[in-house]
Design goal:
With about 375 residues, this protein is of the alpha/beta class. Helix content is about 40%, strand content about 15%. The protein is built from 13 helices and 13 strands. Helix 1 links the parallel strand 1 and strand 2. Helix 7 crosses helix 11.
């Protein structure tokens, strides 16, 4: 069975991370399944090429198309697919008319505005719509038009084989007594001003806390080029207590999340993963409705520490870090609450079984 993943590549890494979790589950359920990525060149941020390559699956580009070459390009890129899984790239759904043999699964993100309602004619052409959010976030009524095809799975948390905190720390070489703050700039997908402010706040907070906690370290993941870390308040030559992990695989990223004492998050995907792994979360919600809503709900439930971007400074972030590190009782209760809020639903296992069932019901690719 051939499965093609088409994640949105115009923004951050959450869509690649989510489809990578599904891809790993598919290979677990059926090792004979082949998975590859197809990235839409028309809407591609180059940063996402590195991120897709880090999944370990084959990556192809869907070239720009016109009326003369559209059909040939689509057949070349998707003609062998048994199932196409598209994550927030609904503008491509009409292409299924060119490859009608393949099943099409759509994974929407939480609506930014009214686009989910306006796109229901696209969603109506799919075989299934997977809703990958916990009950903590309200199910959008806009999906009522396609409710018969919707499966609510909850977050895609492919955590099988991810070591516990102590084992992860040992495997990653974290020293005895070291405390790790993990932050993934991810190409500053919410814009340079936002990303630079968060990076400077996190760096400055760790720098200040090291006066009393010299074994506190900062790990920066999902960095493809050093210039991504250039920001006011952050030195070009980083001190030795900062580890730049580069563009690591999703599995290795989960190992770092498991090992960390604090995970600084901006988007939903890493927030869900940190919650599921029991890692304390400091969330600076990105400036979109989904992350605002998630941050608000986690704050209301006492499941994470939320710092809104307008209040991000080294001092404010440092105070939150200090409170987390100094109060293990509150830290444990907060992590337990966060884990409970992202649990439930069939998760990525249910999504994987759905994809396999659809693929097996299709005519054999030839």
């Amino acid at each position: 069975m051939n499965v093609v993943m088409i994640p949105s590549v115009s923004g951050g890494l959450g869509h690649i991370g989510r489809t990578a979790a599904l891809a790993r589950m598919l290979r677990t359920l059926d090792p004979a399944v082949t998975v590859e990525y197809l990235l839409d060149a028309d809407r591609l941020r180059p940063f996402n090429i590195d991120a897709a390559a880090a999944t370990g699956f084959r990556v192809n580009l869907l070239p720009a198309r016109n009326r003369a070459n559209r059909d040939a390009i689509v057949r070349a890129c998707l003609g062998q697919a048994d199932v196409i899984v598209e994550d927030t790239s609904r503008h491509l759904i009409p292409l299924r008319a060119i490859v009608p043999r393949a099943a099409w699964v759509s994974i929407p993100m939480y609506p930014l505005g009214d686009e989910l309602f306006m796109d229901w004619p696209f969603l109506a052409q799919t075989d299934a719509v997977v809703w990958p959010y916990p009950r903590l976030l309200d199910f959008p009524p806009e999906l009522a038009h396609v409710k018969a095809n919707v499966i609510e799975t909850g977050p895609f948390l492919a955590l099988e084989g991810i070591p516990t905190r102590d084992d992860a720390r040992a495997g990653l070489g974290v020293g005895e007594g070291e405390a790790i703050v993990l932050y993934a700039p991810r190409g500053m997908s919410f814009g340079r001003p936002f990303g630079e402010r968060v990076l400077a706040g996190v760096f400055g907070a760790v720098d200040r806390l090291r006066v009393q906690r010299p074994r506190l370290r900062l790990a920066l993941a999902a960095v493809s080029r050093p210039e991504e870390l250039h920001a006011p308040g952050v030195p070009r030559e980083l001190p030795d207590w900062v580890s730049v992990l580069g563009m690591i695989s999703p599995t290795r990223m989960l190992e770092w999340v498991s090992a960390a004492d604090i995970a600084v998050t901006e988007g939903s995907n890493m927030t869900f993963e940190a919650a599921a792994l029991g890692t304390p979360i400091v969330m600076v919600p990105g400036p979109i409705f989904e992350t605002w809503l998630l941050g608000t709900r986690l704050h209301e439930q006492g499941a994470a520490r939320i710092v809104w971007i307008e209040r991000v400074t080294p001092e404010s972030i440092g105070e939150v870090f200090r409170e987390i590190l100094d109060d293990p009782t509150r830290r444990e209760a907060t992590c337990d609450k966060a884990r409970s809020l992202v649990s439930g639903g069939g998760g990525v296992l249910a999504a994987g079984r759905l994809v396999l069932d659809l693929g097996r019901s299709q005519p054999l690719s030839g």
